[in-house]
C-alpha cells in the first residue's frame, strides 16, 4: 500500500496544472448537468488553484492567479503538468460490513443468480451476523480503512449506508461507526440509514411488521441522534415493495430526512408513486421502463448508475445513453459492498462508463463529480472548483483528462485535497 504524506492545511497554491477541469456551469447556475451540458468540463489550461481555510479562493490561469500573490505567505504544491479536477463524489456505498462474501462469489461463478443465492441464505443476510457481533469501534475501523482506499483514487466525498445490521441496535451502531470514522477522515461523509435493505430472518413472513419497526423506531431514533441525512430503501422483488417503500419515505419526511432508493436493478417498477417524495436519487435503474425514463428527465431526482455491480454480477449495464439523451441527470458511484461491487475505485467506474455504457470521458467525469454532488444535495458546496466551494480536488499524474478513463486497473491519482487538506499518495 502506497505511503501517504499527511500534508498541508494552511493556505495552499496548486501550480503547474496542465489541465484544470473546474466543472463550472456556463450559466453560473447550480443545476444538475443534462444532455449536452453533461460533457462541459469548463477546462482551463496552464492553471493554478488557490486554497484558503478549506475553501477554493481562486482558480484559473496560473499567470493571472500568481500575479498579485506574495509567495512567502503560501505553501506551494507542484502538480508537474498533471490534471486537476474536483474530487470524486461516491454517492452510493455500503462500507459497514466485516467480511467479504466469498461463498456467494464462487456460487455465482458456477451459475447461481443473485436471487437464488439470496433464497439459499446468502446475499445481504449473510453479512448480518458479522455486523451484529461487531463493536462500533471494529466497524468504525473498517469504514475508515475503506475511506482511505477511496481517497487514493481521488474520492473526497462519500455517501455511507448502514444496512447489514437489520435490527434497531445494529443499524444505529452502524451509523455511529460511520460518524466515528467521519471524525478521523478529512473528507466528507454523508450517512444514510438503509434498514430497509432486506427483511431479516427473524421477520420472515412478517415484512410489514419489520417496516413498522423501521418507521416507528429506527427512523425516529436516527433522526433524534442526528445519525443520518437520508433514508434509503431497496425496492425490489425479494426485498421491499413500492407500497412499503412509500411508508418508509413518509416516515423519513415526517422527521425531516431526505430519501433515496435502490430501484429497477433486477425488475422494473412504476416509480411515479415515489416521485411525490422528491427523492434525491434513484439508484441502479438497470431495467427502467420508458415512461419512468421520460419522467426522470422532468424531475430533480438524480439517476445514479452503478456499473461496478453490473460487472461483478455479469449483468446488463445501465442504459446511460438513453437516460442522457432523454434529459435525465446521471451520476456515477461505486456501490462499494461485499456482495455485488467490492471496489473502492471511482476511476474504474469511469472506465466502465466509457467502454460499457458509451459515455464520453467528459460526461463520466461530470457524472462522478458535480452530478454526484447533486445526488447528495451538496452541489452548493461540492462538485466543482470555484471560489467559495469546499477545496476538494484530485490531482492526477496524466497529461490529458481522458487518460483517467483510458487507463484501468491502475491508479494515477498523485494526491487529493480534502476540505483544504493536501494528502500526497
> How many DSSP H or I helices?
16
> What is the CATH C-level name of the largest domain?
Alpha Beta
Low-confidence stretches: none
Distance between the termini: 10 Å
Question: Could you name the key traits of this structure?
Answer:
425 residues, alpha/beta, Urease, subunit C, domain 1, TIM Barrel, 2 domains, eight-stranded mixed sheet, eight-stranded parallel sheet, 16 helices, 33% helix
What does this 3D model show about the protein?
The chain is an alpha/beta fold. It folds into 2 domains: about 5-85 and about 385-425, Roll (Urease, subunit C, domain 1); about 90-375, Alpha-Beta Barrel (TIM Barrel). The chain has helices at about 60-65, 100-110, 115-120, 130-135, 135-150, 170-185, 205-225, 240-255, 270-275, 290-295, 305-310, 320-325, 345-355, 360-370, 370-375, 405, and strands at about 5, 10-20, 45-50, 55-60, 75-85, 90-95, 155-160, 190-195, 230-235, 260-265, 280-285, 300-305, 330, 395, 415-420, 420-425. The strands form 2 sheets. It has an 8-stranded mixed β-sheet with strand order 1-16-15-14-5-2-3-4. It has an 8-stranded parallel β-sheet with strand order 6-7-8-9-10-11-12-13. Helix 8 links the parallel strand 9 (about 230-235) and strand 10. Helix 6 (about 170-185) packs parallel to helix 7 (about 205-225) and helix 7 packs parallel to helix 8. It is globular. The mean pLDDT is about 95.
Amino acid at each position: 500500500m502506497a505511503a501517504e504524506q499527511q500534508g498541508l492545511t494552511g493556505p495552499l497554491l496548486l501550480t503547474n496544472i496542465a489541465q484544470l477541469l473546474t466543472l463550472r456551469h456556463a450559466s453560473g447556475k447550480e443545476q444538475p448537468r443534462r444532455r449536452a451540458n453533461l460533457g462541459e468540463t469548463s477546462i482551463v489550461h496552464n492553471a493554478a488553484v488557490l486554497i484558503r481555510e478549506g475553501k477554493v479562493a481562486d482558480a484559473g490561469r496560473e499567470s493571472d492567479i500568481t500575479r498579485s500573490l506574495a509567495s512567502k505567505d503560501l505553501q506551494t504544491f507542484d502538480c508537474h503538468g498533471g490534471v486537476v479536477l474536483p474530487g470524486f463524489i461516491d454517492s452510493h456505498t455500503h462500507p459497514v460490513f466485516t467480511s467479504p462474501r466469498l461463498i456467494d462469489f464462487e456460487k455465482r461463478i458456477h451459475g447461481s443468480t443473485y436471487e437464488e443465492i439470496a433464497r439459499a441464505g446468502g446475499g445481504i443476510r449473510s453479512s448480518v451476523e458479522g455486523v451484529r457481533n461487531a463493536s462500533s469501534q471494529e466497524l468504525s475501523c473498517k469504514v475508515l480503512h475503506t475511506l482511505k482506499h477511496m481517497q487514493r483514487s481521488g474520492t473526497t466525498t462519500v455517501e455511507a449506508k448502514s444496512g447489514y445490521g437489520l435490527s434497531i441496535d445494529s443499524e444505529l451502531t452502524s451509523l455511529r461507526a460511520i460518524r466515528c470514522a467521519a471524525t478521523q477522515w478529512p473528507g466528507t461523509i454523508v450517512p444514510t440509514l438503509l434498514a430497509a435493505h432486506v427483511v431479516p430472518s427473524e421477520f420472515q413472513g412478517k415484512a410489514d411488521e419489520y417496516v413498522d419497526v423501521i418507521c416507528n423506531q429506527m427512523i425516529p431514533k436516527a433522526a433524534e441522534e442526528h445519525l443520518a441525512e437520508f433514508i434509503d430503501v431497496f425496492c425490489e422483488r425479494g426485498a421491499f415493495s413500492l407500497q412499503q417503500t412509500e411508508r418508509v419515505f413518509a416516515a423519513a419526511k415526517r422527521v425531516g430526512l431526505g430519501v433515496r432508493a435502490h430501484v429497477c436493478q433486477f425488475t422494473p417498477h412504476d416509480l411515479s408513486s415515489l416521485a411525490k417524495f422528491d427523492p434525491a436519487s434513484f439508484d441502479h435503474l438497470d431495467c427502467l421502463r420508458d415512461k419512468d425514463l421520460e419522467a426522470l428527465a422532468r424531475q430533480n431526482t438524480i439517476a445514479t448508475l452503478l456499473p461496478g455491480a453490473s460487472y461483478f454480477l455479469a449483468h446488463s449495464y445501465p442504459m446511460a445513453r438513453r437516460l442522457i439523451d432523454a434529459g435525465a441527470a446521471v451520476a456515477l458511484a461505486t456501490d462499494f459492498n461485499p456482495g455485488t461491487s467490492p471496489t473502492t475505485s471511482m476511476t474504474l467506474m469511469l472506465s466502465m462508463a466509457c467502454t460499457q455504457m458509451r459515455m464520453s470521458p467528459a460526461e463520466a467525469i461530470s457524472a462522478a463529480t458535480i452530478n454526484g454532488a447533486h445526488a447528495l444535495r451538496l452541489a452548493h458546496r461540492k462538485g466543482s472548483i470555484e471560489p467559495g466551494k469546499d477545496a476538494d480536488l484530485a490531482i492526477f499524474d496524466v497529461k490529458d483528462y481522458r487518460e483517467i478513463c483510458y487507463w484501468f486497473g491502475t491508479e494515477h491519482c498523485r494526491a487529493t485535497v480534502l476540505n483544504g487538506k493536501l494528502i500526497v499518495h
